[in-house]
Amino acid sequence: MIEYKNIVGKKPYFVKLSKIESIDIDTPEDFFLAETLYHALRIKHPANRIAA
After folding, report:
1. What is the DSSP code (8-state) at residue 37?
2. 42: domain range?
3. pLDDT digits (tens, 9 = 90+) for 1-52
4. pLDDT of amino acid 43
């Protein structure tokens, strides 16, 4: 960041995400919503589980 005076860097790699994948967490309520969605999607799609 300091070297390039930019928070993105020299060669950024951007990935388009869905609204659910890119939920913004700014408050405890946002975190609760994100956590609830995460658990609901884990149950619905168990093959996509992330190892804890």
Report:
1. H
2. 1-52
3. 677 788 887 888 889 988 888 899 999 999 999 999 989 888 877 665 555 4
4. 80
**Which residue in this structure is represented by tokens 């609204």?**
19
Q: Within a 10 A sphere around the Cβ of 38, how many other Cβ atoms? A: 13
Q: Give CA–CA dist 20/34, Å, rounded.
A: 8
Total domains present in the chain: 1
Can you count the helices (H) and strands (E) in the chain? Answer: 1, 0
Element (H, E) at 39: helix 28-44
Per-residue confidence (pLDDT) for residue 3, from 0 to 100: 76
| Dist CA 11 CA 50 (whole Å) | 28
